[in-house]
Task: structure prediction
Amino acid sequence: MPHGPHYLNWTLVTVLWTLPLMKLVRLLANLGYGSRKEVQRLIRSGAVTDDTGKVLGENGLPPHECIRFRSEPLDPPFPLILMLNKPDGYTCSSDDPGATIYDLLPGRFAHRNPGLNPVGRLDKDTTGLLLLTDDGKLLHRIIHPKSHCLKVYHAKLDRPLGGHEGALFASGELLLNGETKPLLPAGFEALGKNEALVTLHEGRYHQVRRMFAAAGNHVTSLKRISIGGLQLPPDLAEGDWRLLTTEELPALTCSSATVPHSVAADLRWKAKL
Ligand code: URA
Result:
């Protein structure tokens, strides 16, 4: 076994020499390109280059935006935030044996570390705006009722509205079946005989469907159309996704969101805090 200053020098040289490689392996593995072993193999095969085509491995690491995997730019680093127009029939769970929202994204997104999670799940048969992020702090800020981040849903109903829904939902006293804590006041706006917008500050299990059930109706289709100040873009087709732009991010500092029909419920909600 070698020992003494010579041995220490060689160890130091080896560590320094392999540091960029280790960093690259960790980066790609955390972005979901493969296990560390698989990624090491890919790097050795020359799949990872810089933007001039120089194979990366043992030499210094260029900035993230200059790294290419099989000639394609790398996925964005942490923090990633994207919006998906969720179609009917997809669950928001990563371990569901059926169709999941992760089937609509590049496969490696399901293997990122930290993991990419939906910001407030939608039911399998709810469609519309779904955000996903790997930033746990941002996720909690958006879903926590105290963040005041309003979510607006468009509900279509089996039976005509009764005229009592607005007062019931705004009361702050509606108790859902099997629960002991009343719902926070919610906004309501009738859009026609059989459809309405509902604005929520919280996200309880099947909340909108159970609210209408409590009002004696049945939701036949449900779509989330906005979160905070962020609307579902009309040009984002069902099943499509895209990254949030830097301009869109402030819309998620939710206190700035204004949704006219929710104002009354909003004020009552604030008074409860
Ligand atoms: N309320 C529901 O009932 N379902 C959803 O998916 C979201 C809100």
